[in-house]
Specification:
The chain contains 10 helices and 10 strands. The strands form 2 sheets. Strands 3, 4, 5, 6, 7, 8, 9 and 10 form an 8-stranded mixed sheet that branches. A two-stranded antiparallel ribbon has the order 1-2. The radius of gyration is 18 Å and the shape is globular. The longest helix is centred in the last third of the chain and has 20 residues. With 268 residues, it is of the alpha/beta class. The chain has a domain of 176 residues: 3-Layer(aba) Sandwich (Rossmann fold). It binds S-adenosylmethionine (SAM). One of its GO terms (biological process) is methylation. This is Methyltransferase family protein. It holds the Pfam family Methyltransf_25.
């Protein structure tokens, strides 16, 4: 089984998704999860990018109601709560991430305004029309861009905005090596032009599109690479660790051919 960020964080119930959707993780999956445990973030991004996308989202009500979907340990949740003064419902299916988020929120004095919610992103137990801002960094791919845009729209209050980030091809003719990796990891990955068109077809006005800088990939991969090195020193199976590091190596070689893009979308 090939592994990448795209595979690691697709949960079903309380474990990574597999064909059977049941059973104990394989040793490789365990290595993968050990490598990803307690990283500062689980996808490319940065506080600067979260702040920029928030500015691009435009005016929000005072103390906006925010839903952060696939929030992980909260690299976007906490800055959003801090910057807006609003309340953030932080949704993830992996409870250990939400436990860490709860601790981080309390330490930052934001515990009162961050409400962790264990739920599946395609079946959210949240009422229609109650969010001024729906946010999702590096997680919409789990449902698929189109399904996320269709499924999350009902959460938005009148005037509400959807902000998400998505992995995309930045070329229409990727190298075979890049295509081979991403076809296995995220076969549905599209170009920015394709996603802009898809968002418009789905009934959104595309208010802003922002290609995340390389430094946002470093912010994700550097701590991951350190973790892999430590696990190597600890004698963890080198072949399994090579698989974990594969995604970083692909980025080093072919990084100009794909990126992560932030979208600010408003229902028409
Ligand atoms: C690539 S991580 C991104 C996490 C975080 N937004 C960040 O930027 O670090 C994807 C997140 O989606 C969560 N996730 C996976 N499948 C999910 C599902 N079906 N419903 C809700 N969350 C899910 C994972 O636990 C993980 O925290």
């Amino acid at each position: 089984m090939h592994h990448s960020i795209m595979h690691t964080f697709r949960w079903c119930g309380d474990g990574p998704v597999r064909a059977s959707c049941a059973g104990v993780s394989t040793p490789l999956e365990q290595v993968f999860l050990a490598a990803h445990d307690d990283l500062p973030r689980e996808a490319p991004g940065s506080e600067e990018t979260t702040a920029l996308l928030l500015r691009l989202a435009g005016d929000l009500p005072e103390r906006p109601r925010i839903v952060d979907i696939g929030c992980g340990t909260g690299p976007s949740t906490l800055p959003l709560a801090a910057a807006t003064g609003g309340e953030v419902v932080a949704v993830d299916l992996h409870e250990p991430f939400l436990r860490r988020l709860r601790t981080r929120a309390a330490t930052s004095g934001l515990g009162e305004r961050v409400r962790p919610l264990v739920a599946a992103m395609d079946d959210l137990p949240l009422p229609d029309g109650e969010a001024d801002l729906v946010w999702s960094e590096g997680a919409a791919y789990i449902m698929g861009f189109d399904a996320a845009l269709a499924g999350w729209r009902r959460l938005l209050a009148p005037g509400g905005v959807l902000v998400l980030t998505e992995a995309e091809w930045t070329t229409t003719e990727p190298s075979p090596g890049a295509r081979e990796f991403w076809d296995r990891s995220y076969p549905g990955m599209r170009t920015t032009a394709e996603n802009v068109a898809a968002a418009e077809r789905a009934g959104y006005t595309v208010q802003a599109v922002y290609l995340l800088p390389d430094s946002d990939w470093d912010a994700y991969y550097r701590p991951l690479a350190c973790r892999i090195a430590t696990l190597r020193e600890d004698g963890v199976d080198p072949a399994a660790l090579d698989e974990v590091g594969d995604e970083i190596a692909v980025r080093e070689r072919f990084g100009a051919e794909y990126g992560y893009t932030g979208y600010v979308l408003r229902p028409r």
